[in-house]
Design goal:
By secondary structure, the protein is an alpha/beta fold. The longest helix has 16 residues.
């Protein structure tokens, strides 16, 4: 199947509708985009990128345009790079969304390994679930750095991580669409960080699977915190759970610990960096 056909199959499955909505593939597309732009993931993205916003944004692998719409709604000048021209999940969908919402989004068809833009064009290079699809991870990071101005921000969100190369088959088997279109992948954490650093970036923050609402998919922040509270309650009792999960500082430490011990194949990480050369 193509990616579009795989998504359409997912949307046709009655027991997968929660996943369709969590991935913002539900219709009407404009309403899904508005829901994303009002949600916890986007609020955290906007907070992290505050030093560079509003600005000129390159949305790498923009998909159906939900992030491009959110950036445009925040006053940014947005270029959406997307290799797929589909009117359901690709460039056509972004153009339709931009027209329906009267958003300032330029759509360009292409791949991250060879960006058709001049050096220093953008203030922000952003990719939502993009790096783990790269044919050449270092080339994508290198190109992102090239088209950013000096000091520009690079945010790669929701990237699949494995602890060992031997874990990749387990992750691929667990992915709901991998068997249909075969486009998923994951890298070691060090592979991401080394590729980013080698491209002329300084990494400001690495957010693990339990350390940012960006990575909680398909849960919201409240749902994630409730899940952790129930887990701690089962292990220690409700009284200790209230103590451990109560103060913000305690929760932060707990979520850092959970990230450290989590070896789930394909868990999500987010990387924030700035161009230094």
């Amino acid at each position: 199947m193509t990616w579009e056909e795989a998504v359409e199959w997912l949307k046709s499955q009655p027991d997968k509708q929660y996943l369709v909505e969590a991935a913002y593939y539900d219709e009407p597309a404009a309403e899904a985009a508005k829901r994303f732009a009002s949600g916890g993931e986007w609020r955290e993205v906007a907070r992290i990128l505050t030093p560079w916003m509003p600005g000129k944004v390159l949305d790498l692998g923009a998909g159906n345009g939900i992030s491009s719409y959110a950036f445009a709604r925040s006053g940014c000048i947005v270029t959406a790079l997307e290799p797929d021209h589909s009117f359901k999940v690709g460039g056509g969908a972004i153009k339709t969304l931009a027209g329906e919402t009267k958003s300032r989004i330029e759509v360009v068809q292409g791949y991250g390994e060879e960006l058709p833009f001049k050096d220093g064009t953008f203030d922000i290079a952003y990719g939502r679930q993009v790096l783990h699809h790269a044919e050449d991870l270092r080339a994508v990071c290198r190109e992102a750095a090239r088209v950013l101005r000096s000091g520009g921000g690079f945010l790669a969100t929701r990237e699949h991580v494995i602890s060992r190369k031997e874990d990749l088959p387990r992750f691929l088997e667990s992915h709901p669409l991998q068997a249909l279109y075969g486009g998923e992948n994951a890298f070691l954490l060090d592979e991401y960080t080394e590729a980013i650093k080698a491209s002329g970036f300084a990494i400001d923050s690495v957010f693990g699977p339990h350390q940012s609402p960006i990575n909680y998919f398909p849960m919201t922040k409240n749902e994630k915190e409730e899940e952790i509270r129930r887990l701690i309650s089962r292990l220690t009792g409700s009284f200790m759970a209230r103590i451990i999960c109560g103060p913000a500082a305690a929760r932060k430490g707990l979520f850092r610990l959970l990230t450290r011990v989590d070896n789930t194949p394909g868990r999500l990480y987010t990387f924030l960096a700035r161009k230094i050369i």
